[in-house]
Specification:
Blueprint: E1 2-7, E2 12-19, E3 23-31, H1 33-36, H2 44-65, E4 75-81, H3 85-102, E5 106-110, H4 111-117, E6 129-134, E7 139-146, E8 149-155, H5 161-171, H6 178-186, H7 211-224, H8 231-259, E9 264-268, H9 275-286, E10 291-293, H10 297-300, H11 305-316
Length: 333
C-alpha cells in the first residue's frame, strides 16, 4: 500500500510517501522556525498562513522525491489532532480534497499515536514496551501492549519538558527553539554547578512536573542579577537545568519499565533529539538489561512519515473516517 501522509499540527508543514507501512520513499518537512524565532515561540495565525503557502509545494516535493504521482497513491492519512486548530485545518482540508477527487480512503490520525509508532520505521519493536513521548506540547508515558493498545501511565501536570526548555532559554535570552540551544550550550557547562530540584522524581505515580524546576531557574537567575550572567555562568545554568530535566525523564521511564517488566523502552517527540537524554537513557537502561529504541532526529520532530505509518495500520484495520472529520485541538491518546 502506498500512503500519502500529511502533518500540519503546529509549525512544520510535512508530507511523506510511505510504502507498506515501513518503507519511507520521501519525508519532506518545511520548518517555520525562522518566522517564529523573533516572537520567541509559535504564533498560531502565522503558522496557519505559512501552512497554506507551503502545503501544495511540500506535497509536490514529496511525490517527486518518491518518484511517484497522485495516480499511484492508494490512501491518505492526515493529522487530525491534537494541535493548533488553524494549522490542523489546512492539512485536513487538503487531504479531504485529494481523497474526494480521487476516491481514496482517508483516515485522521492522532498526532501522539504517530510519535508513538515512529520507532517502527527504523526498528523491530517488541511488545509490550514503555514509550515516552516528550516534546514541546507533551510529556506522556505509555504502556504499549501492541499497535492500537495503549495505556497512558502518566503525563505532565503542568509544563511539558520541551516547553520548560523553551521557557528557560527565553529567560536567559538564548533564542528559539530553546531545546536545541540549551543542548548545545550544556555540553560546555558543569551539570553539577547548581543543585536544581527534580520535582516528583521519587513520587510513586508516573506523572511529571517541570514548572517547579523552571521556577527554580528563574529565582536563581534573579538572585545572581544580570551582571552575574557571564557566558560561563549561563552554560552552567543550562547544563544543571538540563541534567535535572533528563534525570526526571529517565527515572520515571525506568520506573515504569521495571514495574511492568518490559524489555524495551522507546522515546519519541522533539525532546528525544536531546543528546543527554539519548545517552543517559541508554546507559541506565542497559544496566538493567533493557533495550532503548530512539528514532533518528529527523523522525523525532514532527513529520509526515509517522502519520502515514499510523494510517497504514488504521486502514488495514478498516478504520475509515468520514469526510466530515474536523480538527481536534485536544485529543488524549
Amino acid at each position: 500500500m502506498l500512503i500519502l501522509g500529511i502533518e500540519t499540527s503546529c509549525d512544520e508543514t510535512a508530507a511523506a510517501i510511505v510504502k507498506n507501512g515501513s518503507n519511507v520513499l520521501s519525508n519532506v518537512i518545511s520548518s517555520q522556525v525562522a518566522f517564529h524565532k523573533k516572537y520567541g515561540g509559535v504564533v498560531p495565525e502565522i503558522a496557519s498562513r505559512k501552512h497554506q503557502e507551503k502545503i501544495i509545494p511540500v506535497i509536490t516535493e514529496a511525490l517527486v522525491h518518491a518518484k511517484t504521482t497522485l495516480d499511484d497513491i492508494e490512501a491518505l492519512a492526515v493529522t487530525q489532532g491534537p494541535g493548533l486548530v488553524g494549522s490542523l485545518l489546512v492539512g485536513i482540508n487538503v487531504a479531504k480534497a485529494i481523497a474526494y477527487a480521487r476516491k481514496l480512503p482517508l483516515v485522521g490520525i492522532n498526532h501522539l499515536e504517530g510519535h508513538l509508532l515512529t520507532p517502527l520505521l527504523e526498528h523491530r519493536v517488541l511488545f509490550p514496551n514503555i514509550t515516552l513521548i516528550v516534546s514541546g506540547g507533551h510529556t506522556n508515558l505509555y504502556l504499549v501492549r501492541n499497535i492500537g493498545a495503549y495505556e497512558l501511565l502518566g503525563k505532565t501536570r503542568d509544563d511539558a519538558a520541551g516547553e520548560a526548555f523553551d521557557k528557560v532559554a527565553k529567560l536567559l535570552n538564548l533564542g528559539y527553539p530553546g531545546g536545541v540551544i540549551i543542548d548545545s550550550l550544556a555540553k560546555d557547562g558543569d551539570p553539577t554547578a547548581i543543585d536544581f530540584p527534580r520535582p516528583m522524581i521519587h513520587d510513586t505515580s508516573f506523572d511529571f512536573s517541570f514548572s517547579g524546576l523552571k521556577t527554580a531557574v528563574r529565582y536563581h537567575v534573579k538572585r545572581i542579577a544580570p551582571e552575574g550572567l557571564t557566558d560561563e555562568t549561563i552554560r552552567n545554568i543550562v547544563a544543571s537545568f538540563q541534567s535535572a530535566a533528563v534525570d526526571i525523564l529517565v527515572a520515571k521511564t525506568l520506573q515504569a519499565a521495571m514495574k511492568f517488566r518490559v524489555e524495551v523502552i522507546s522515546i519519541a517527540g522533539g525532546v528525544a533529539c536531546n543528546s543527554q537524554l539519548r545517552r543517559q537513557m541508554k546507559e541506565q537502561a542497559s544496566a538493567k538489561n533493557i533495550e532503548v529504541l530512539i528514532p533518528s532526529p529527523v523522525l523525532c520532530t514532527d513529520n509526515a512519515a509517522m502519520i502515514a505509518l499510523a494510517g497504514e495500520h488504521k486502514i488495514r484495520a478498516k478504520a475509515e473516517f468520514p469526510f466530515k472529520m474536523n480538527a481536534v485541538s485536544r485529543w488524549q491518546l
